[in-house]
Amino acid sequence: MRCAPTAGAALMLCAATAGLLSAQGRPEPPETPRFASWDEVNVLAHGLLQLGHGLREHVERTRGQLGELERRLGACGAACKDPEGSAAPPRAQANLVNPGGGDASPETLRSLKTQLEAQNSRIQQLFQKVAQQQRHLEKQQLRIQNLQSQMDHLAPRHLGHEMAKPARRKRLPKMAQLAGPAHNISRLHNGGWTVIQRRQDGSVDFNQPWEAYKDGFGDPQGEFWLGLEKVHHILGDRGSRLAVQLQDWEGNAESLQFPIHLGGEDTAYSLQLTPPVASKLGATTFSPSGLSLPFSTWDQDHDLRGDKNCARSLSGGWWFGTCSHSNLNGQYFHSIPRQRQQRKKGIFWKTWRGRYYPLQATTILVQPTAAS
Asked: In the chain, N or C terminus with fewer CB closer than 10 Å?
């Protein structure tokens, strides 16, 4: 594969493609390891991120240079005419573009400007592709960090040849005691459980950006989200339990609770679930140590879908996996919409009432357990 002369960033991409094509023609060495080590994956992800940043800086620098040339050509268009409107001598025109001299006719200048505009358009397209790839690489790096964290938690159990036993199911306060509008903020703490979310009437917009979900929003006397940073501070770096209380439009209620580990902001507040819990919640693909779900919002895409932003496609911020397991921070509907496309944006818990049934009320609680 031969690379034609073109912009620097495009030439880099062409050269990289040529290298890949030539590599495919070489015979593979015998006994190639099937899986890369964690360090190799980390180095690769870091290198790809650095390449993305470098390409982005190159594109921005090239765009600046093209902008300067275009400005000088624009100045030439205004200055290359005498008071009677006749064209200035070619030497004067050329000096505006090339101070070192050289003849340039108006036709040459117009052709150059057209080429620069076309090149600028190609640079803009390349910039968008680089930005898109960079977002994908950042998501991949976050997934690698989450997998490493899972391995770190799994290693001590493997070394001791012990399997963690599921905690005994504890009795939860009834939803009616917590979902009523008359309670005050002191009742956010109930028997060691802390209420971190409540949905009941649609009075608060939950389609909020990352910073709002980090700090918290809403009214503790009604609908609210406590805030990821506050929840992480309550649970600390130890095993905990999370409980969800669900209510449909027919008066039915369901309570679930399961062990979790909540990471800090450096992991996008990842929620780590054990394999039995992940399976019970409808996940079909997870590692031997379980499932790690980073928190995502419409402006901070950390979900496990590489081709979609779940928070933007649905509504609200949540620990999305593949956009289809649950979303208790979705859009609130006062009645069930007829359109399926609209219903999918609502509050749902797939393994209870299904993917396209918007729930009437929810409460989420957390409780720290013994240090892990």
From this structure: N
